[in-house]
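Moderator note: this is an archived Q&A kept for reference. The question asked for a predicted structure of one protein chain; the sequence and the answer are reproduced below.
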Amino acid sequence: MVKYTTQFLAKLEDLVAESDYILRYEKGNFKSGYCLLKEQKIMILNKFFATEGKINALLDILKSIELDTSKFSEKNLKLYEELTQAEVKL
């Protein structure tokens, strides 16, 4: 299901862009590779991560928060549902 390519990363970034959250790439020494500011709805990822690390960090974030899917396009809604169903199966 998860492909560690720049195209898949772009799909995840597009998914986050349609949500209420803002995705930023910054330098920092986050223990998990990312920082999540829930009150301000900001996701900060380590910009020095490789593509695989960025994808894993985004997937971790998506597992830990609820997104408002009412603004999603059909393509992104389908991707979000696939990702959440994959979590349940694990």
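Archived answer notes: The chain has three helices and three strands.
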